[in-house]
Design goal:
Order of helices and strands: EHHHEHHHH
Shape: globular
Number of strands: 2
Strand content: under 5%
Largest sheet: 2 strands, antiparallel
């Protein structure tokens, strides 16, 4: 069953993360053309991509909550816990769980 993606949601996610279509495509393990089609209102039945979109949206929301307007700086700053890669680079490699873990630790640090 094909799912309709809100094109504004995909564009908003890209804008929040500061990703190009190509970067988002890498993070979702799809082609750049697929991201372009989604932004134009196409549907998909790619369950793995839909899960990754949900995970990226969760990362973006938590990142905004923790870092606010400094989210892009967080995404661009290399971290030892990510093998000296930036969170953005880790996301593009598909390491979404690792970036979510870094954000969860930062969030817990704010509570403690």
């Amino acid at each position: 069953m094909a799912m309709t993606l809100r094109h504004s949601g995909i564009q908003e996610l890209r804008a929040t993360l500061g990703f190009s279509r190509e970067s988002l495509a890498r993070a979702l393990d799809v082609s750049t053309r697929t991201v372009e089609r989604w932004e134009a209102g196409a549907t998909t039945d790619n369950a793995a991509a839909l899960r990754r979109i949900d995970e990226l949206a969760e990362i973006a929301a938590l990142g905004r909550e923790i870092y606010g307007p400094d989210l892009r700086r967080f995404l661009a700053t290399p971290r030892r816990s990510l093998g000296d890669r930036s969170p953005a680079a880790a996301l593009m490699r598909g390491d979404l769980a690792d970036v979510l873990g870094v954000l969860a630790q930062a969030y817990e640090g704010q509570l403690g």
